[in-house]
Amino acid sequence: MIAGKGTALGVVLVCEGMLPNPVRAQEGFQLRPSLTTTQVHDSNLFSTPSDRVADFVTRVTPVIESEYRSTRWTLKGRYTFDAERFAEHPELSSAGARRHALAGVEYRPTRRWTLTADGERSSTQTPGDLTLLTGLALTRARADRVAAHSSITRQLDRLTTGTIDYTFTEDRLAGAIEIHTHAATVGADHHISSRDIMKVKSSVYQFAFGSHDEGSLTATSLALTLGWTRALARDTEIAVDGGARATNGAIAPELSGGIRFRFDSGSVSFAYARTQATIIGLAGTADTQSATATAAWSPRRWLEIAAAPAFVRIRDASAHANVYRLTLDASHPIGRNLSVAFGGVANLQDGDLYARPAGATIQQQNIMIKIIAQPGLHAR
User: For residue 310, what is the enclosing H or E element?
Assistant: First the structure.
């Protein structure tokens, strides 16, 4: 799925903050297990526009992460699954409500060359887990995603870096069509000053909608963008990308931009993007526009707060939807390896791209309390 860049920026910022510095810096083998117990109240269990059904869900999530790092090699792995128990709908309880596996390798044969490859597989009973970047609501069904990625990066000179990148993604939704996406990109970054970076990127996307046995509908998309990133001050950075995308001959703008402010106790970022996306279970591409904000604040050493409002507009050949989303999180350590977190997600969807009544409005709120156990890092 080719997702809105603005929303993706917010996700990247959150993930960067979650990665501990020792894991990135130390050499050798490291193992990091964790266990999260979550109590969730879901106000719309089946993501329906009417006759909403609520329930309390108890979720247990074991996670195992490993990394091996040497001068030339970095190997990473991660595996997690969710076991869920529903208070009012025990027929939905499952020991494998979600599963996610990730493995990756990075090889640096010289200071100028970097080669990376990674793959992941996800399965879930709530397809909305695979539409997080658009926020579209789907009813409960089995959904799977397989993705593979590789890239080659070359330091062409002291100021210029070139990259060749390839990604394959396969999305499957029970009772719907399969989506296969091939994306190849060639790009370069050039430092024109100590504060400014110019970027150019050319991409080719090949989409196939439907199974190989039954035949499939295909689409080809070509995109060319130019970008500029500038450090306005020590704690402020702005980035802009613009260009065009042609899908089966139809030309549309390809735009993204964002600004980030850092301060002593946190950061704030704003982003906008206009692009195209595939929507799990549907044939064809959709035009998307997204506006997002991400704020992280730590007023005390023992308290971390994050908020992420977002708006996404999705339009395909026959329908459209507007999604309004607000995510709130707060975490507090209650021991050396134990912390408690409170979270909430409010989602309002006006319109629908799936086979539901025209003008449907879907509301859903999730309130969560988590206990997170993270034993100390095991290294050797």
Answer: strand 303-315
- Each residue of 167-212: pLDDT tens digit? 999 999 999 999 999 999 999 999 999 999 999 999 999 999 987 6
Distances in whole angstroms, Cα of residue 81 to Cα of each of 37, 51, 105, 122: 12, 30, 22, 10
Q: Say what the alpha-carbon torsion angle 169, 283, 185, 5 is, to the nearest 10 degrees.
A: -90
What does the pLDDT look like over 220-279, one tens digit per residue? 999 999 999 999 988 999 999 999 999 988 999 999 999 999 999 999 999 999 999 999
Per-position DSSP letters for 92-149, written without gaps between them: G-EEEEEEEEEEEEEE-SSSSEEEEEEEEEEEES-GGGG-TTTT----S--EEEEEEE
d(CA 202, CA 163): 11
Cβ pair 277, 314 in contact under 8 A? yes
Give the span between the Cα atoms of 76 and 363, in whole angstroms: 38
* Strand, helix or coil for residue 280: coil
Question: Could you give the CA distance from residue 40 to residue 28 in angstroms, rounded to a whole number?
Answer: 38
CATH architecture of 5-379: Beta Barrel (2.40)
> What are the sequence ranges of the domains in the chain?
5-379
Place of tokens 């990376």: 116
Query: Would you say 94 and 125 are in contact if contact means Cβ atoms under 8 Å apart?
Result: yes
Biggest CA-to-CA distance, the chain: 62
Alpha helices in 132-232 (DSSP H): none
Question: Is the Cα torsion angle 281, 282, 284, 285 positive or negative in sign?
Answer: negative
pTM, full prediction: 0.86
Alpha-carbon dihedral sign for residues 276, 291, 11, 198: positive
